Structure formats: C-alpha cells, structure tokens
Give the backbone structure.
Amino acid sequence: MAREWPHLVDFDELVRLHREGKLEAYRDEMNRQFVNQTPERRGRRHRVEQLLFQIQAAQTRSKNGLGASLRLSKMMFQKLDELNGFFCAQKNSSKQNPEAKKKVASAQILAFTDQEDS
C-alpha cells in the first residue's frame, strides 16, 4: 500500500499563510497528517510522536525562530553523534572479533513426508 503524502504548498503560499497568521495551523495539520500516516508497527508511530513532542518543546522554550532553529540543530547533531558512536562501536567490535564475521547461520533441514488421511 503506497503512502499518500500531504499536499505541500509552494513558497509563495507559505508566505501568504504567514502574513495571515495561519502558518502555524498549517504546520500543525501537516504534522498531524504525517503522524497519522506513520505505520504503527514496531512502535514507529510512537517514536514519531515522541520526536514531534521534543521538537515542539524546543520551539516553545525558545524566545524566537532563530533560537528554535539553534536548539533543533543541536538536537540533530547530538543524535547524529549518538548514531556515529553506535556505528563506530559496531565496526570496532567486528574488527576485534574477526570470527564474528565468519560465523554463518546453519540449520538442520527436516524432511517431511506426505501422510494420507486414513
């Protein structure tokens, strides 16, 4: 099933929405649509809701748009640093244990015979 993305307006429309004081309502609606279209499997929707909450909290705590942008940028770089540390740790653990790469999963294949109903 293909996901239908919300209709995004062009820049001039965003400027008009800002001048009319409707930009935040548009942003909230786009966020709501995105969350609603996120699959619930493996907690994805919940993680998106948590991320949206963190973003909104950072925006609320900031006194202006520039402050919010700086907070969000810091959040992104912190997450990137965490991911980088995770991948480096994975890479180093495989270098330290070369046998980890050589292990191949194996399984015993069971033969099933057809049984006729008596």
